[in-house]
Amino acid sequence: MRNTIEFVLNGQPRRLSAFDPTLTVLRHLRESERLVGTKEGCAEGDCGACTAVVAELDGEGLSYRAVNTCIQFLATLDGKALITVEQLRGDDRELHPVQQALVDAHGSQCGFCTPGFVMSLFAGVQNAVAPKRQDIDDLLAGNLCRCTGYTPIINAATKVLEPAAENAFRARETHIMGLLSQLPANDSIKLENEGRTFIAPATLQELSETLIEYPQATLLAGGTDVGLFVTKKHIKPDVLVYIGKIQALSEIAPCDEGVRIGAGATLDRAWPALVALYPAMNEILRRFGAVQVRNAGTVGGNIANGSPIGDMPPALIAAGATLRLRRGDQTRDLPLEEFFLAYGKQDRLRSEFVESVLVPRPARDSLLKVYKVSKRLDQDISAVCGAFNLTFEPARGGPVVKDARICFGGMAGTPLRADVCETFLRNKPWNEATASAAQEVLRGCYEPMSDWRASARYRNQVAGNLLMKYFLETATQRPINLAGRGERVPYEA
Amino acid sequence: MKLDDAGVAPRVHASWAHDSSAKQVCGEAIYIDDLPEPEGTLQVYVAQSPHPHARIRRIDASKILAERGVVAVLTAADVPGEHDISCIRAGDEPVFARDLVEYAGQAVFAVAAPTIDIARSAARKVIVDYEPLEPILTIAQAMQKRSFVLPPRVVRRGDPEKALASAPQRLQGSITTGGQDHFYLEGQISLAIPKEDGDVLIYCSTQNPSEIQHICARVLAVPDAAVAVEVRRMGGGFGGKETQATQFAAIAALAATKTGRASKVRLDRDDDMRMTGKRHAFEIDYDVGFDDSGRILGVKFVQKEDVTPRAADRPNGSGRDSCPGPRDTWNPLNGGSLCPGHGL
Fold it and tell me: Which of B27, B183, B234 sits opposite A86 (nearest CB)?
């Protein structure tokens, strides 16, 4: 077991040991490496000023992911390459095309958010993001700028995302790949420093054993939640067990029943597999945090942390997903909704962990829709997230509801199914009268709280409205889009 | 670059990159937290009141002074000069709350240590004995208690009462607007470096370096010449670093002069959001008289502003004074009120 981490920083190898396992990449960059181009704006993965790009070996080339360094722990960089704003200039100090485009388009004013935008755009260039407005908006949704009003930045993006000319960075890829291929891989890590421990098992077996030895451990995947323990609550877990080095946990495996998503698979990687089964999940994933969050956060983490306002659980519960938990050699499967017992309390035994989630194929003649209502369109937490999955049976006089699965986030202390409303809907004709009556039943299913995201009254109103939206969309077979991105599609009877 | 006949570069109708842009896109533009810190620089954590309104009976920091690394604890008692950072010298903005807390998030004391982690965790161990008092949290409560920071001010033109009374049509109502934060991306930050003879050099992210200089000199009880303030650039200000940067510059300067070591106050986002504010919530009652074509003949506004209990936080006037509208067409009456909100 290794007691060091090894990674590549701006084209130079680094080997570190004896550091606080909760040290963030951002603090390491700024305080130890004196790479101060990367900024702290919010320290919670929201503003993107701290964005840097992680590169990993991927087949014959490198994959590039923009991440929020403010909440990413340094130890999770093991085996990877980190590229910061300082590495983009050419050897003759010429600006990278992304940098030049921002200068030319007057894309910086106070300049504090600028390095983050540079790095998000750089990742966009490396990943060949199309220079279309929607794609640019999505690419930059995780970066806040207070000065420019964004137009000059979008102009710069439009210009620089055109099929790119050669730039100095491309010549460095071979060098980075060479260094990465020399790093140790597939071994486990244990770091100890001043009473705190970081363990990164390499296999599922090792993870199981580690959690039996350290039942009090905090499990760490993408760090988009655990990172905030440190930066916001100022609580440092004594034992961190990082699952990011376990190949088996990051697998996304299509199977007869549907697709099995490993607990360590990032939201970004799980996205296409989920959308292949349920096209309606596209919008919820597009609005799940933003690029940097989806590049780090995992489907498993969004379930395991038990939040009442995570966006994946309502969608997955409505789809009928099954959670697989493991403790030692024992695994057990349970319907996802049964995992959430109460606010802050999940059906997870000591030393047990989420191994995977099985998302089934849609039932015949069913239609799943997920709606997210939040104050901001992007990079925001849901006030209400509603998922509807009804199965219909054709009948004379119109379709009849055969089965209904309805689940809401933001309406209770856990993601919660609307059991009474589901029962009410079964075997009813699917028409406006049924939908109207079901709205009232649905509003009786929940006692939401009032907080700064929404009042209880608003949440109840919206929950019922979303049910009617689902009805109108299924009745007309047309999506309704009254606000937000994309073409406006009003309801037409 | 094409020069004109006189050999002058065209400045008008030409697009120029600003002089920092190339540095900014490379991460080479220096903000205060990017400056190399002098050896032994102390990080200062500013501890705040959890109560919106309370009396401070006692602050006991004796335990933490023995903690590893804690170098100094600063309270109101450590202010040698004028204990007021009000930009209008109103005497109602102490650096640290003295015996009375007037809003949640008000600075009560500060801890200086080699790292911010040590300073923050030590601050949690300081015992502050508060006697919570009943706060005024809403405009309605303030109106009921007639609790105003400054006396109401009335702006009037023409004869609004008469215009309203004789108008063919009339509407009354009330609108509210929420408070806002300036949300500069770079939080409040000051780095103070002690110089000889009690002088201090303050690197401060501020829109008003002169005011920082004058007020810090008063707080430190030194001549203006003993305080130098340097601002290369800010990571945004938007008005939020005009008067609000003063407190953190003053605390950094107090720590530097007390310890003889460079001292940095850098608020993280949460502390910044709690401690600063200034774009306040309004409640505006209106009574408008107009003719059948919709032309306004007379209008009466009562503007109530939910402010912190500081006179310098008064409305900048634009909200109230721009309401009168087109000259000589309305008969406007504006009554303004300032209601202290202990909750802010």
Answer: B27
Rounded Cα distance between B228 and B197, Å, is 13
DSSP string computed for A213-241? H-TTPEEESS-TTHHHHHHTS----SEEE
Q: Which residue in chain A has the smallest CA separation from B117?
A: A234
The answer on pLDDT for B92 being more than 50 is yes
The H or E element that residue B193 is part of is: strand B189-194
Q: Are B310 and B185 in contact (CB under 8 A)?
A: no
Give how far the C-alpha of residue B321 lies from the chain's centroid of Cα atoms, to the nearest Å: 22
The Cα–Cα gap between A39 and A54 comes to: 16
Please indicate, yes or no, whether residues A409 and A454 belong to a single structural domain of this protein: yes
A205 SS3 class: helix
CA A148 to chain centre: 27
Q: What sections of A41-113 are H helices per DSSP?
A: 97-104
**C-alpha to C-alpha distance for A430 and B45, rounded to whole angstroms:** 61
Q: Does A235 touch chain B (CB under 8 A)?
A: no
Q: Angle A114-126/A151-160 helices, nearest 10 degrees? A: 30
Q: Identify how many contiguous H helices and E strands chain A contains and give both numbers.
A: 17, 20
What are the φ and ψ backbone dihedral angles of A280, each rounded to 5 degrees? Answer: -70, -15
**Does residue B215 sit in helix, strand or coil?**
helix
d(CA B48, CA A135): 43
pTM of the model: 0.94
- Its domain, for residue A82, covers 5-86+177-242
| Residue A302 C-alpha from the chain's centroid | 8
Read off the pLDDT of residues A391-425 as tens digits, 9 standing for 90 and up: 999 998 889 999 999 999 999 999 999 999 999 99
Domain end among B270, B295, B322:
B270
| Contact status, residue A393 vs residue A400, Cβ threshold 8 Å | yes
How close B182 comes to chain A (CA, Å)?
A: 9
Q: Is the domain of B107 the same as that of B195?
A: yes
Please indicate, yes or no, if residue A487 is contained in any of the structural domains: no
The verdict on B265 and B333 lying in the same domain is no
User: CA-to-CA distance for A301 and A379, rounded, in angstroms?
Assistant: 17
Distance in angstroms (rounded) separating the CA atoms of residues A304 and A355: 10
Residue in the block written with tokens 């000259």: B327
Which residue of B16, B19, B26 is the best one to mutate when testing the A interface, meaning the one whose CB has the most A CBs within 10 A?
A: B26
Tokens standing for residue A91: 């050897």
Q: What is the pLDDT of residues A114-148, one digit of tens each?
A: 999 999 999 999 999 999 999 999 999 999 999 99
- CA dihedral over B11, B17, B22, B28, signed as positive or negative: positive
Q: How many whole angstroms separate alpha carbon A152 and alpha carbon A107? A: 5
pLDDT confidence of residue B332: 66
